[in-house]
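FIELD: query
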Amino acid sequence: MDSTWVTVGILLAGVVVVIGGVLVLRLHAFLALILGALVVAALTPAAAVESYSLRKNRLRVLTMEEDGRQVVLAVSKSVPLQEGMQLPVLREDESGHLQEAGRVVIDEIRKVELEGGASRTEAVASVVAGDESAGGDFRIAKGDVLIDPQSQVAARSLAGQTIGEQVAEGFGSTCAKIGILIAMASIIGKCLLDSGAADRVVRSALRLLGEKGAPLAFLSSGFLLGIPVFFDTVFYLMIPLGKAMRMRTGRNYLLYVLTIVAGGTMAHSLVPPTPGPLFVAEQLGVDIGLMILAGGFVGIFTAGFGFVYATVANRLWELPLRESADFSLADLEAISQREEKDLPPTWLALLPIVLPVVLIGGYTILKQDAFAGSVSADVLRIGETLGDKNIALLISAAIALLMLVWQKRTSLAALSESVQSSLASGGVIILITAGGGAFGNVLQQTGVSNLISDLPEASPLVIVILAFLITAAIRTAQGSATVAMITSVGILSGIATSGQLGFHPVYLALAIGCGSKPVSWMNDSGFWVVGRMSGMTEAETLKYVTPMTTLMGLVGLAVVLVLVTVYPMV
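FIELD: result
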């Protein structure tokens, strides 16, 4: 059977196991992802795993002579190349796997000065040998893979791993990248709720914008709180305030509900440290600060459209205020009815949310070439330390805990219980996300990126639209936006990490985030949270909420398409 169809079959088997496990067997998302990873790892040939590793660690060819006898390679710190070193040249065989076809020898290592004062190290290599079929006249061809001997040995080692080792490696590497971040974000979110800081943010927005500006206050508060707090929790917190505004004004309940959804749902898919965009950014090698800034920028347009949609929908239809199922609504209503003196000041309530954005985003800006030479080494070192995503979230979590102790006069025992509760919730998210990392890792080892190997040569618009459609299809099928993003990036990350994308991978990350919005229906937990907590029937939720979130995703896609066309950042 052709290797392409084998890869497609393995890919479909993995996706069916994950989606079927969630929908049919009602498995927890973590178990479904791990089961899918084990199935994919079991079906993937060792030769495909080795070829994947070789392609992933290939040396970047800067230029190649027309006769194919000499190449210039980029030299990185992670791959120590030396003059006189021989490098294998690998070429695809009939089965699509890489086999050694010839060798080159490094003639010279040189440093080249570039425009703007930058420089790079290059290696000049010439052909020294070829296989017998080349007739002694071996020439390097387009598509050949040049690899250093150390990476070749590592590829063979990876191919020799057991199924369990392959899955565990993907799980562990993902935990190393996002474990601390999600744990700290969970603590921040819990402290914001327990201390009344989240309630203070919403009340301050309402006070600033007034009763007429309540929808805008709900939109902005939902987006801001959606960065460190999961969407379901944001909606739990804010819907009692929306009901209270409806009781006060006697109208506009649909407008209040939809603006809360419009704000929280986009931050959930676009702005780290929410797990979905955080995982996608890590997998695509996107700087976390850049993802925050870019996600926030696109989120302004999508949330803005959601506000317009909610305003128009409110004029066309009326949603009555009904009795609704209230999970922990009584507790949240009690929180929302606290006296002003029981809430922290606005600046302190905002600090745990804004500080990590400032620290991470600030360092992302500071390290750009435009600031080279104008910032001292000491300042840059301090910025690098404080702007590290783990350090920034740790500082923010510490402030949130201190705020909870100061505001509530919480005992150490109560504080410990609060932290335990938040970490238990965050631990589940870490398991799901790391399980997705394991699934994505073994998906890449199938060689799935080769199925779309021609995409880097295609229009950036085609690649971005494809990323959106793949994510939207998976989201519609199984319901979870986070699982859809995890699965989609596992399929697409190969073309981003190959260095041949043709535009900055942040646009791919944003397209995946926007693609996780269509289509919210009965298999989505958020669908039921919004419907039950607001008092909507299933038909009303489908009529009011589903079109809005779907259109918001499409608007986000349109914004990304414009950005990648005007400013591809390459």
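FIELD: remark
Confidence is low (pLDDT under 50) at residues 131-135, 325-329.
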